[in-house]
């Protein structure tokens, strides 16, 4: 699937999708609900928007993260984002 064939996203929406994809507690189902992108579409978008080394790090992180898939989640995790997680803007992590 081609991400661009589904919808053209604004830079702000792309930043939000990338932010949600990096968050450990945000499942792919939440991205699909909010933006209509499947897990495969998110992978395509991430590969397109990130440097290749960053994309590889993200893929490794996602493969080892059980909270990205609702079916694999441990019972009791009911939030998407840690209260202490740093804000991400313009694809750069800002300091507190």
From TrEMBL:
Please give the superkingdom of this protein's source: Bacteria
Q: Which InterPro entries match?
A: CHP03643 (IPR019882)
Q: Could you tell me which species this protein originates from?
A: Flavobacterium cucumis
According to its UniProt record, what is one Pfam family this protein matches?
Answer: DUF2805
Specify the protein name. TIGR03643 family protein
């Amino acid at each position: 699937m081609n991400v661009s064939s589904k919808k053209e996203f604004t830079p702000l929406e792309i930043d939000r999708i990338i932010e949600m994809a990096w968050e450990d507690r945000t499942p792919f189902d939440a991205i699909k609900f909010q933006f209509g992108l499947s897990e495969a579409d998110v992978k395509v978008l991430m590969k397109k928007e990130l440097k290749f080394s960053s994309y590889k790090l993200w893929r490794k992180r996602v493969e080892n993260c059980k909270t990205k898939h609702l079916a694999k989640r441990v019972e009791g995790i009911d939030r998407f984002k840690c209260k202490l997680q740093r804000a991400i803007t313009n694809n750069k992590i800002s300091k507190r």
